[in-house]
Design goal:
Distance between the termini: 75 Å
Number of strands: 0
Order of helices and strands: HHH
Helix content: over 70%
Number of domains: 2
Strand content: under 5%
Radius of gyration: 23 Å
Length: 118
């Protein structure tokens, strides 16, 4: 039997993870830990009102951007290496299109509200 799970433990043919599988599991655990830490930090800031007003929104927004980077790196396996650059460009372009559509819709609705109510 050849593959990522090989080995014979104690006379039984139990699967043993190879080095690549252990590295991947460790990366997922790091990503999970960072994601939970960032989520708990944002939740703590909002619940305990450590900051107020625009500062709170700015820090939560920064934590959200870091959360997105963690999700891309550890769960989607997208980093800045040459082989993954096309995937990253595709995701960023999709995000830009969504931002343009949502921003344009909000702009149009705001303009209509101003014309009808003002």
């Amino acid at each position: 039997m050849s593959g990522p799970w090989e080995g014979n433990a104690g006379g039984h043919n139990l699967p043993q993870p190879n080095a690549e599988a252990r590295q991947e599991r460790a990366a997922y655990l790091w990503g999970l830990s960072l994601a939970l830490l960032l989520t708990a930090a944002a939740f703590g800031l909002a619940v305990f009102k450590i900051l107020a007003g625009p500062a709170l929104l700015a820090v939560i927004g920064l934590l959200a951007v870091i959360q997105v980077v963690v999700q891309f790196r550890f769960f989607l396996h997208i980093d800045l290496s040459k082989s993954k650059r096309e995937d990253l460009q595709l995701i960023l372009f999709t995000g830009l299109l969504i931002l343009i559509m949502v921003g344009g819709s909000l702009w149009i609705l705001g303009n209509l509200d101003q014309r009808m109510m003002g």
